[in-house]
Amino acid sequence: MLYQLYESQRTLMEPFVDFAQAAAKLYSSPLSPLGKSPMAQRVSAGYSLMYRLGKDYEKPSFDIHQVEVDKKGVSLAIHERIEVDKPFCELRRFKRFTDDSATLTQLKDQPAVLVVAPLSGHYSTLLRDTVKTMLKDHKVYITDWKNARNVPLSEGAFHLDDYVNYVQEFIRHLQGKYGNCHVISVCQPTVPVFAAISLMASRGEKTPLSMIMMGGPIDARLSPTSVNNLATTKPFEWFENNVIYRVPANFAGKGRRVYPGFMQHTGFVAMNPDRHATSHYDYFKNLIKGDDASTEAHRKFYDEYNAVLDMDADYYLETIKTVFQDFKLVNGTWDVMSAEGVLERVKPGDIKTTAVMTVEGELDDISGSGQTRAALDMCSGVATGQKIHLEAEGAGHYGIFSGRRWRDVVYPAVKTFILQHNKPLEQIEKAPAATKKAARPLKPAMLKTPAALEMPSTPVAAEAVKLAGKRLAKTTRAGLKSTVAAGEAVAKELSDTADKPVVGKPLLVAVKNTAVKPEPVADVIATATTQPVSTPVATIATTPAPVAGAEAASDTPVPPEKSAA
After folding, report:
1. Which of 257, 400, 432, 472 has the most crowded Cβ, counting Cβ within 10 A?
2. What gap in Å lies between CA 184 and CA 138, rounded to an integer?
3. β-pairing verdict for 538-541 and 444-445
4. d(CA 3, CA 387)
């Protein structure tokens, strides 16, 4: 009944929303007499805000038509198309085109990646930045989940088991085209993707070359967040009785039991109501000031954020029960019904030929710390050297797959991990001994930056720092501390004339017995994933790039056999 009331209210408000849109344009247009009246900007801003608050937000488009692949300005034209159409999901491919023959040759050899988007309220376009970034170096496919209210009842229900079966079908589709693929799951799908690949391994099927899980509730018992607490403090019956409603008659899926999108959106906003209220008030003020850049950024964000879809009730309730209440995956009690109607037990330990990477955000308030990393311990059949964890420092939940931290911190590590495992593990294990020795893993350590050193503006000062850097490079570990002190002293003297901070990429470095040599994240992953390290799982942390005068994070000597090459 609540869904019907909501739709009735939305229908009644629609004429007023349209009027608000027209009035906002009327008072802001320089060609309109009303646009020259006193307070016109304020009136227009008020109507514009009213329109934004009352309008119905449709599914956004990916809107990816072109990406640049290198610094030379070579661009790729992107054609988006549906390759597999299922009742509740479409497998979309972003096919790349170019006239540059050298670039075309590179594209043909690049890895194929299946990005499994979350089915948890928002559309898959939430991963637009993820897809756009990956298109530079990969053949990219994504699961585009449909709004359940638009799926007729004749298509049947959609269960969590169906989600697992869909993922397996999409993996087999890519394997049929390219021989094999890599799979990235973001947030909610980490659990069903983990199950899908586990079941494929148990059957003896070919599994993906690598599996990258980002910010997902693999073990929701660890570091519980407000999302986890809601699921554990309310009984299962509460969810069934309070958030499940039938689709009204004006949609194709009329009569289907769903968890409505408008209720999910209310929950999203309720998590940070003050922030959203402030954001809308700032939008109103920016309209008055004529700050077009800020207002456009607001529109783009909320066009995505406010666009939500309905989820089939069976899928939603089974996810609550399986993942957040019974913890069936980590307890080893999860049985999945295959597409053939056979009940199969999920056994992550059966995975042996798929490299595993987990990614977490330091400030993630949706999937708590350790929840995703738990997958590494569950993959007992995967060699230690083929498992790695990345914690993105300063990143929240959305920061690990969108925005600057995704592009500058997470993606370079993911890209290198995929390239490192873009062939079957059997071939990696049979690599020549000389190759293995050259790629011997290192015990990672972080270089701590003593202070924010700045680049001196005078030529003499710059030369002094350059000279100090050369001396540091020649210094042995025994004399490292004294050189660090000297470097810091020079930096302190020059800080008054500095005008530009040194900004670098996040680095993971290895400490050598005789010197300190920073290495890019990509290089360290390449070595850390070849053979086991001294700890159970290789771990990447992120930090600003070290500068001259930086000191090793640990004074403990590193054995010669684990020193940097």
Report:
1. 400
2. 12
3. unpaired
4. 46
Is residue 193 within 8 A of residue 211, CB to CB? The reply is: yes
Residue for token digits 């491919």? Answer: 93
**Three-class SS of 274-290:** HHHHHHHHHHHHHHHHC
Q: In degrees to the nearest 10, what's the CA dihedral of 64, 74, 139, 311?
A: -10
> Residues 171, 114: contact at Cβ < 8 Å?
yes
Could you tell me which residues come within 8 angstroms of residue 396 by beta carbon, excluding any fewer than 6 positions away?
361, 363, 364, 365
If you compute the radius of gyration of the chain from its CA atoms, what whole number of angstroms results? 27
Per the CB < 8 A criterion, the answer to whether 17 and 57 are in contact is no
Q: Which SS3 state, helix, strand or coil, does residue 213 take?
A: strand
The single-letter DSSP state of residue 448 is E
* DSSP code, position 529: T
Q: Considering only CA atoms, which of 554, 551, 527 is closest in space to residue 538?
A: 527
**pLDDT 10s digits, 122-136:** 999 999 999 999 999
Q: How far apart are CA 43 and CA 325, in angstroms?
A: 50
DSSP code per residue over 43-110 = HHHHHHHHHHHHS--PPPP----EEE-STT--EEEEEEEEEEE-SSEEEEEEEEE-S-HHHHHHHHHS
- CA 49 to CA 77: how far, in whole Å? 36
Contact 384, 229 (CB under 8 A): no
Q: Is pLDDT at 533 greater than 50 in this prediction?
A: no
Q: Which residues pair with 541 in a beta bridge?
A: 391
Domain 66-240+310-405 has CATH 3.40.50.1820: yes
Q: Which residues contact 101 (CB under 8 A, 6 or more apart)?
A: none
**What would you measure as the largest C-alpha separation in the chain, in angstroms?**
81
What string of DSSP letters covers 10-48?
Answer: HHHHHHHHHHHHHHHHHHH-TTSGGGGSTTHHHHHHHHH
Q: Which regions of the chain carry the CATH code 3.40.50.1820?
A: 66-240+310-405
Q: What is the rounded distance in angstroms from the CA atom of residue 341 to the CA atom of residue 236?
A: 26
The tokens for 132 are 């756009």
CA neighbor of 469 nearest in space, from 515, 520, 536: 515
- pLDDT at position 36: 86
Tens of pLDDT, residue by residue over 386-417, are: 999 999 999 999 999 999 999 999 999 999 99
